[in-house]
């Protein structure tokens, strides 16, 4: 890990200058968001796309407006800042869902995922502008390129992996210009825009662009276009390396990027209770479903998915699945995408989140099964502990990077 540039600057300051004049500006508090289970919910993890399929235990609670409205209100009551609505064949449409949920909530924001390249950036900008206007600015956008070639083909998209990211970068640049009230034009591959502009856009409500992707092509797009680069949960050393790499790429563009971490959480009053729940989840997984899921994940083009799978290597015992202190990869045996959970007592989980915060994570997108009850548990028991820890300057000075074998 490289030295803290702010600390280096302080060390090099002239002795005659008061120390407080060179003190770094206080870092904003971390943000915490929650996940909307738009493919159904239950006590057990399940797939997030129709290609993968799900067990009945993972979808006992249907993804209807009644239940998802309860999840949204619970997350709002628990103090979360926004709700992530995923996009994919197995999810209800996030634009329509989140528009409906604005009528069931009053404060919480919406991190709406959309699949880049499936619609004109001008049309996406119109949708986003209408949403932010009618929802008092409660909008953030999660730009998803897509790493599963089979699912992309189902949408009619046959571009190769790196070309999809080139297209995504163009879309993000156009989208940003339009949402800021500028005129956009240019050739983005299949689309050639001429004189694109929004009519009286609601520019008083900025829309941050969130973006995910672990490949070199994705990191170049993040450095040039993302406001927040989203990472999936990995051991702290790996997360720190990714942050440093994207920061350096962004600096070459004269930009800074914030970082978010997507994690599941299994938290209880005691560590024993939390690990008992993790063991229960593991015991309910059908070995045939695990094999089928791992075979499908291996065929995907997503570098991030490959990194998640490599954490456990298909192992199904506690020793294989606890890949770092309190970081459990069991959910990734069957669930596509974010497949790790922090498992432990409320204090332990908060400490691990504070360590990620010290590495440079600015926002956390959390979830737990079932999402209704766990929104309240995590919001009431874990988030306040993390805020207390990260408010201590000495605690934030350096991350604790534990070794793990």
Written overview of the protein:
α7 (216-225) packs across α8 (236-252). 42% of the residues lie in helices and 16% in strands. The strands form two sheets. Strands 1-2-3-4-7-8-9-13 form an eight-stranded parallel beta barrel, surrounded by eight helices. A two-stranded antiparallel ribbon has the order 5-6. The two termini are 20 Å apart. It contains 15 helices and 13 strands. It is globular and about 60 Å long. It has one domain (29-396): Luciferase-like domain (TIM Barrel). With 405 residues, it is of the alpha/beta class.
Short description:
The protein contains 15 helices and 13 strands. The chain has helices spanning 5-11, 65-77, 94-101, 121-134, 149-154, 161-179, 216-225, 236-252, 271-284, 287-298, 303-312, 318-321, 346-359, 371-390, 393-396; strands spanning 31-35, 82-85, 109-115, 139-144, 184-187, 192-196, 209-212, 228-232, 258-268, 322-324, 327-328, 341-345, 363-367. The strands form 2 sheets. The chain has an 8-stranded parallel β-barrel with strand order 1-2-3-4-7-8-9-13, surrounded by 8 helices.
Defining key terms:
405 residues; alpha/beta; TIM Barrel; eight-stranded parallel β-barrel; two-stranded antiparallel sheet; 15 helices; 16% strand; globular; disordered N terminus; disordered C terminus
Number of domains: 1
Question: Which architecture per CATH?
Answer: Alpha-Beta Barrel
List how many beta strands DSSP finds: 13
Give helix % range. 40-55%
- In CATH terms, the superfamily is Luciferase-like domain
- Order of neighbouring strands in the sheet with most strands: 1-2-3-4-7-8-9-13
The helix/strand series, from N terminus to C terminus, equals HEHEHEHEHHEEEHEHEHHHHEEEHEHH
CATH class: Alpha Beta
Oligomeric state: single chain
Main beta sheet strand tally, sense and closure: 8 strands, parallel, barrel
Structural class: alpha/beta
Number of helices: 15
- Portion in strands: 15-25%
Shape, please? globular
**What fold name goes in the CATH topology slot?**
TIM Barrel
Distance between the termini: 20 Å
Overall pLDDT level: 87
